[in-house]
């Protein structure tokens, strides 16, 4: 089978570089971190490998770690819900109420900021939200004598910044699934005498579930792993499990603990996805 | 002009035998049709000749040389694909000139040959168009020109007209045949349209389940089908089953049916086939010496120029085809007699 | 059941119109929310005051200061060349892989496609720290070289997916046609597959450039002190206290990345032409 041999070599030669690269720089590092999370010490200096569960135990024995993880989950949930509440109607207006070139242009406008530097966008919020900043200034200008607005270093600032960063995801995914929804379906429902609310609740929303679900996952997962957004916008109010993990590597140099916390976070993410998967799959099938 | 030959070619895909010990000669200058139902292995055979499929066993000979393991690009073939596979980023000229340019033919000579080809396929002046600016029929012609400009030894066509609508398809059939004749190239084409196979080809090979069923000239296969499958696949056929008795086939409830050719020994089972257009439908037996079966009309399907009768007989449902010469049409439920001569009664294999 | 507005005369079309109008206003507000911080950033780069104090007073002095800020300029230079190197390498080997995954059916193909998703979905924080651990442990260490290694790894799945989508839009017939016309596999690739894939490849390259140029998280963990890239420099500047020079460079960064993504959107027909 000469041709078969040639084919095998071609496949190996073409996929080899990319997958070797991914292995060396993503899969092996993740494995290495997993291994070190069960080691007493990180990869500094010379010492014997020593197996321990203490970094995982730390999470379960120290209440503040659980609190901070809980806070991260709360942050993820809040951001996801706000993105849904703002993003779904926006996507609906865009997909069903605006036509032609305008729609294309507005759609691009919506997703464009999303492709700009995330750090810089967070930075711009610090400028807007600080006392004497743009928001404060604007409010004082419109309502002279209103109480000063100081959102700097607050939980709300973190949420605002994250919503700003991730909102385009939700608009994008909802837009794509609403786009696929046939207008004649809505017209058929209307001809059967369904009210606007009924149409929204019984037809549009169920059919948009795949888009909403995709958006929710795409937002929730990175948000609970975020660290620089809470750090820059939340200050002391912005301590979450992400910032704790980051500091294990940059400040405290307790890499095994950082690794253990990372994998616990990853496990929680997978657990949430696994629990919601049957529900979502069900809804998607009916949709 | 070249001869292509397949010898004992076998190709399996897992459990599926796409080709099972197929041996076939494609004669020089011939327009050869591979005909068979879907999944029978036609495309696989064509692609084995082209070199896209490497057979597990057997040889593919091109002018006497085994090319079964020669890569496609060294075989010097021309191929026309079902959806044409024109290069979308190239003009018509560059598409046709591609084969010349990879062979290192000079630009001037290429220009000359491409123009000749465009004249041949009746598309002069289309050089600068992109494929998407052409109609289906025009794309088809470009594909043909591209495949033939390199003067390949054999032209392979996989359902070349499958993507065209009926009218255009019939026009292109005639044109394709003319071009092939003019150039004199050996051509092999795949189709599952029996009419197309009959009108276009010099030879037909019927394939079923990866096996060769019958090969021959269209007329020959039509008049002398070798098997029940061949009889039924190429044209329509009435099939009668019985046992050999005194030089005739005794069909249950019908009586003896005399065939044209020799029969197996006394008592062994035998099958005969009769084309519906060879069957006369009568109100009363004619009294002539011929094969005969009585029945009742289920339906007369009228199609303007002809009527096809579907008749219930003791030997099952049979068909009779009659040109519309103005006779009365037999109504449903009417008792009729079907008659045909032994000369049109072909013994076939099960 | 009659709609409340399906009554008489004028009011019949009024309610849906009001709903429509409100919808548009809502969309406009969302856009304001999305663009206000970016606009503020751009404006503040031209404001006289160090403390972003209002009222606004036009000045280009921060852009002038930027021209003399050695640190930020070096970091910008590093960012650009790493993004370029990343684009070349990731696009090349990613396109090769996408071609094989799209053209051949083989055992392990599905697994290979699934393997593209963990790098995209696992939070960058975790991937970045894992790279830090592994690179330190193996002696690869930190610095621009390991940063490049990491950026390429992050860009690869996107390149493979974007080029793969283009790959799926045409079958193997084009290459087969080329082969039947006498082209060697290499000739068929260069003269047929590559040109047909080109829009996808360019889109993938733009994406890869943006992934690297805007990458902060991975760079943050892998940059060695002293040799930094722009996002990392911006981060430390923000932490130390604001200087409007950072505004100036941030504005530039944001417009560069938005420009690239606009080109990407055009090329990949992102959002469609419905
Ligand atoms: N690449 C392949 N992998 C697995 N099985 C295949 C492959 N190609 C063909 N087969 C199988 O081999 C058999 C013959 O296929 P082939 O394409 O030759 O049929 P065909 O006669 O051309 O049919 P059609 O008229 O539908 O085109 C079929 O059962 C098909 O499923
Ligand atoms: Mg076929």
Write the layout of secondary structure elements.
The complex is a heterotrimer of chains A (287), B (350) and C (274).
Chain A: H1 2-36, H2 54-61, H3 63-97, H4 100-111, H5 118-129, H6 134-142, H7 155-180, H8 183-191, H9 196-224, H10 228-234, H11 241-250, H12 255-286
Chain B: E1 4-13, E2 16-26, E3 31-35, H1 42-50, E4 57-62, E5 65-66, E6 77-80, H2 92-102, H3 107-120, H4 136-148, E7 154-158, H5 166-183, E8 186-191, H6 194-200, E9 203-208, E10 211-216, H7 218-223, H8 228-233, E11 238-245, E12 248-251, E13 255-257, E14 269-274, E15 280-282, E16 291-302, E17 306-313, E18 316-323, E19 335-340, E20 346-348
Parallel strand pairs in B: 3-8, 3-9, 6-7, 7-8
Antiparallel strand pairs in B: 1-2, 1-4, 4-5, 9-10, 11-12, 11-14, 12-13, 14-20, 15-19, 16-17, 16-19, 17-18
Chain C: H1 11-44, H2 61-67, H3 70-103, H4 109-114, H5 117-121, H6 124-138, H7 144-167, H8 173-180, H9 185-213, H10 217-222, H11 230-240, H12 244-267
Helix pairs in contact in C: 1-12, 2-12, 3-7, 3-9, 3-11, 7-9, 8-9, 9-12
The complex binds adenosine-5'-triphosphate (ATP) and magnesium ion.
Protein described:
- The complex is a heterotrimer of chains A (287), B (350) and C (274).
- With 287 residues, chain A is an all-alpha fold.
- Chain A contains 12 helices and no strands.
- Chain A has one domain: MetI-like fold, CATH 1.10.3720.
- Chain B is an alpha+beta fold and 350 residues long.
- Chain B has a 6-stranded mixed beta sheet with strand order 6-7-8-3-9-10, with helices on both faces. In chain B, strands 13-12-11-14-20 form a 5-stranded antiparallel beta sheet. In chain B, strands 15-19-16-17-18 form a 5-stranded antiparallel beta sheet, with no helix packed on it.
- Chain C has 274 residues and is mainly alpha-helical.
- The longest helix of chain C has 34 residues.
- The radius of gyration of chain C is 25 Å and the shape is globular.
- The relative contact order of chain C is 0.13.
- The N terminus of chain C is likely disordered.
- Chains in contact: A-B, A-C, B-C.
- Chains A and C meet through helix 1, helix 3, helix 4, helix 5 and helix 7 of A and helix 1, helix 3, helix 5, helix 6 and helix 7 of C.
- Bound molecules: adenosine-5'-triphosphate and magnesium ion.
- Magnesium ion binds next to helix 1 of chain B.
């Amino acid at each position: 089978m000469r041709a078969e041999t040639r084919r095998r070599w071609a496949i190996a030669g073409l996929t080899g570089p990319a997958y070797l690269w991914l292995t060396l720089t993503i899969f092996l590092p993740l494995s290495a971190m997993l291994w070190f999370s069960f080691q007493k010490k990180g990869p500094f200096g010379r010492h014997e490998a020593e197996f321990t569960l203490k970094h995982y135990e730390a999470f379960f024995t120290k209440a503040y770690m659980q609190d901070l993880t809980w806070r991260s989950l709360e942050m993820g949930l809040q951001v996801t819900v706000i993105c849904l509440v703002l993003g779904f109607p926006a996507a609906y207006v865009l997909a069903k109420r605006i036509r032609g070139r305008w729609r294309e242009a507005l759609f691009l406008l919506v997703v464009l900021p999303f492709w700009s530097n995330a750090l810089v966008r967070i930075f711009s919020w610090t400028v807007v939200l600080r006392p004497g900043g743009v928001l404060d200034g604007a409010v004082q200008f419109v309502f002279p004598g209103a109480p000063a607005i100081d959102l700097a270093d607050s939980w709300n600032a973190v949420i605002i910044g994250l919503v700003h960063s991730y909102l385009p995801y939700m608009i994008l995914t909802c837009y794509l699934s609403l786009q696929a929804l046939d207008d004649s379906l809505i017209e058929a429902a209307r001809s059967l005498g369904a009210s606007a609310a009924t149409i929204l609740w019984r037809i549009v929303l169920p059919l948009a579930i795949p888009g909403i679900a995709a958006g929710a996952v795409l937002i929730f997962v990175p948000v609970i792993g975020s660290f620089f957004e809470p750090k820059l916008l939340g200050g002391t109010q912005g301590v979450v499990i992400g910032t704790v993990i980051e500091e294990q590597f940059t400040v405290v140099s307790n890499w095994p603990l950082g690794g253990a916390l990372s994998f616990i976070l990853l496990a929680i993410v997978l657990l949430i996805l696994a629990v919601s998967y049957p529900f979502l799959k069900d809804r998607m099938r009916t949709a | 002009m070249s001869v292509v030959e397949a010898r004992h070619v076998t190709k399996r895909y897992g459990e599926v035998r796409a080709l099972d010990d197929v041996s076939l000669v494609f004669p020089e200058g011939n327009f050869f049709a591979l005909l068979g139902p879907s999944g029978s292995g036609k495309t696989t055979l064509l692609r084995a000749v082209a070199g896209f499929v490497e057979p597990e066993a057997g040889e593919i000979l091109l002018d006497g040389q085994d090319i079964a393991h020669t890569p496609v690009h060294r075989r010097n073939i021309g191929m026309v694909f079902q959806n044409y596979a024109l290069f979308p980023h190239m003009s018509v000229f560059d598409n046709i000139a591609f084969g010349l340019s990879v062979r290192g033919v000079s630009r001037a000579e290429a220009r000359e040959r491409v123009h000749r080809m465009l004249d041949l396929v009746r598309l002069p002046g289309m050089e600068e168009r992109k494929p998407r600016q052409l109609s289906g029929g025009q794309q088809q012609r470009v594909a043909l020109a591209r495949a033939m400009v390199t003067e390949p030894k054999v032209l392979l066509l996989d359902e070349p007209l499958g993507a065209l609508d009926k009218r255009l398809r019939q026009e292109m059939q005639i044109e394709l045949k003319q071009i092939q004749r003019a150039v004199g190239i050996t051509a092999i084409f795949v189709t599952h349209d029996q009419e197309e196979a009959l009108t276009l080809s010099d030879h037909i090979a019927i394939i079923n389940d990866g096996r060769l069923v019958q090969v021959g000239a269209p007329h020959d296969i039509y008049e002398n089908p070798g098997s029940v499958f061949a009889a039924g696949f190429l044209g329509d056929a009435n099939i009668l089953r019985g046992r050999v008795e005194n030089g005739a086939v005794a069909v249950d409830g019908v009586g003896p049916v005399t065939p044209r050719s020799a029969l197996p020994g006394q008592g062994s089972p035998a099958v005969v086939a009769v084309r519906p257009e060879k069957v006369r439908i009568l109100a009363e037996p004619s009294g002539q010496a011929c094969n005969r079966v009585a029945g009742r009309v289920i339906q007369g399907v009228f199609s303007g120029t002809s009527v096809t009768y579907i008749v219930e007989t003791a030997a099952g449902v049979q068909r009779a085809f009659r040109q519309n010469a103005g006779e009365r049409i037999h109504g449903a439920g009417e008792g009729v007699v079907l008659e045909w001569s032994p000369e049109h009664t072909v013994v076939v294999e099960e | 059941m009659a709609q409340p507005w399906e009554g008489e005369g004028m009011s019949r079309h009024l309610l849906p119109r009001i709903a429509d109008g409100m919808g548009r206003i809502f969309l406009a507000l969302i856009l304001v929310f999305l663009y206000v911080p970016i606009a503020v950033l751009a404006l503040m780069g031209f404001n006289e005051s160090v403390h972003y104090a209002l009222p606004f007073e036009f000045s280009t002095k921060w852009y002038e200061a930027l021209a003399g800020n050695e640190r930020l300029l070096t970091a910008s230079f590093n960012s650009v060349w790493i993004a370029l190197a990343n684009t070349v390498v990731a696009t090349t080997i990613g396109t090769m892989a996408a071609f094989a995954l799209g053209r051949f059916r083989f055992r392990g193909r599905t697994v290979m496609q699934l393997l593209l998703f963990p790098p995209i979905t696992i939070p960058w924080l975790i991937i970045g720290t894992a790279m830090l651990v592994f690179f330190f442990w193996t002696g690869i260490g930190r610095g621009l070289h390991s940063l490049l290694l990491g950026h390429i790894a992050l860009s690869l799945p996107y390149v493979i997916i974007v080029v793969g989508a283009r790959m799926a839009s045409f079958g193997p017939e084009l290459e087969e046609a080329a082969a039947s016309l006498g082209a060697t596999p290499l000739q068929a690739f260069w003269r047929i597959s590559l040109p047909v894939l080109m829009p996808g490849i360019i889109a993938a390259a733009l994406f890869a450039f943006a992934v690297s140029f805007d990458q902060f998280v991975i760079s943050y963990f892998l940059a060695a002190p002293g040799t930094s890239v722009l996002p990392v420099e911006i981060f430390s500047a923000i932490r130390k206290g604001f200087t409007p020079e950072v505004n100036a460079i941030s504005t530039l960064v944001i417009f560069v990345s938005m420009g690239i993504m606009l080109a990407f959107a055009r090329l990949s027909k992102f959002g469609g032409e419905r």
